[in-house]
Amino acid sequence: MTDPIEHLRKIVNHPENWDFSGAKQLYAGVDLGTYKTIAIIIDEAGMPRAAGMRKTEVARSGLIIDYVGALNAVRELMQEIRKHCPVPIVNGATSYPPKTEYANLKTTTYILEGVELEVLNVLDEPTAANRVLKIENGAIVDVGGGTTGIAVIKNGKVIYSNDEATGGVHLSLVLAGNYKISYEEAEKIKTDKDKNREVLTVVRPVIEKIGSIAATYLDEFDDLEKVCLVGGTCELEGFSDIVAQNIRLETFRPKFPQFITPLGIALSCLDVNGSRARD
Ligand SMILES: Nc1ncnc2c1ncn2[C@@H]1O[C@H](COP(=O)(O)OP(=O)(O)OP(=O)(O)O)[C@@H](O)[C@H]1O
Ligand SMILES: [Mg+2]
Q1: Residue 279: its pLDDT value, please?
Q2: Ligand 1 centroid from CA 231, angstroms
Q3: Which ranges of the chain have pLDDT less than 50?
């Protein structure tokens, strides 16, 4: 059977690989991050059918700071997808980082409604990630662009979560300062596999800091069987090994960690009020 995450990687921003044939229902998952906005369309079985992603600067420290920019980004992504889709896409879900519910719940709901999506679910990011990971007892550390989210899971449910303002952006800032180059150039060097060794040497202290932040939170909890590392920054080769050394717990990094939370957001549509989601 096709691995949904593997398939998602193949279709993101590749309309030629989008395929809606035979789908009985379609659902949209929208993730508005500090680094990127992504919309994923899944079918009733949870298989991704289409997905669009673009770099956006509409959120900071987990909060939407540019409502119009966010609305436009989601609108453009959905317009592109709907252009290729023979049936209407009417249901969707979105999420918010730990401890930002008060500020994000309504904003993100309005954004989805603004692009003609009925909101089936607005859930917290670690719960979304765990929809894919299915951890029973453990933790999820989500290292995104601007923040690192830490969540503890007991009996399959998030019992604690928090967010710290350190993420991939800080790695790029350190690279930019070290090489005296622009932030954009630093981003390119960071993702250049040929420069990986050199990059790790420069950013190692920042990665260790992220690891020690996570460790400080997780030390408060006993019996964590494993820690899963997700988020775009975990795509950096060598990153998870350094974090693992700091956390001192069994740590694993799934394939394509940047897509775990966004896919989980889309999948959450299937859990909501079964009959409503499947109508
Ligand atoms: N291959 C890669 N190597 C290194 N870093 C990467 C790679 N791919 C993405 N990143 C980094 O991942 C970060 C974005 O991660 P992600 O897509 O999870 O962020 P986000 O969800 O938008 O942000 P946040 O969760 O902080 O709101 C950026 O800093 C980006 O540079
Ligand atoms: Mg994120």
Answers
A1: 42
A2: 6
A3: 275-279
* Ligand 1 atom 17, closest CA: 232
For residue 5, count CB atoms less than 10 angstroms from its CB and return exposed for 0-12, middle for 13-18, buried for 19 or more: middle
Superfamily for the 135-258 domain: ATPase, nucleotide binding domain (3.30.420.40)
Check if 191 has its Cβ closer than 6 Å to any atom of ligand 1.
yes
Model confidence pTM above 0.90: yes
Whether 235 is in the pocket of ligand 1, judged by its Cβ within 6 Å, is yes
Token digits for 94?
């979105």
Residue spans of the domains in the chain: they are: 4-129+260-278, 135-258
Predicted confidence at residue 277, as pLDDT, reads 46
In this structure, which long-range contacts are made by residues 150-154, counting pairs with CB atoms below 8 Å and at least 24 apart in sequence? 150/98, 150/213, 150/214, 150/217, 150/218, 151/98, 151/124, 151/125, 151/126, 152/218, 152/221, 152/224, 153/126
Q: Token pair for residue 249?
A: 């717990």
Q: Which of 35, 40, 170 to mutate to test the pocket of ligand 1 (most atoms within 8 A of CB)?
A: 35
Fold of 4-129+260-278: Nucleotidyltransferase; domain 5 (3.30.420)
> Residue 56 CA: which ligand is closest?
1
Q: What's the pLDDT at 231? A: 97
State residue 274's pLDDT score. 52
Evaluate: CB of 59 within 6 angstroms of ligand 1: yes
Mutate to test the pocket of ligand 1, among 162, 233, 239 (most ligand atoms within 8 A of CB): 233
**Fold match between 4-129+260-278 and 135-258?**
yes
Per-residue buried b or exposed e for 196-209, using 16+ beta carbons within 10 Å of the residue's own CB: beebbebbeebbee
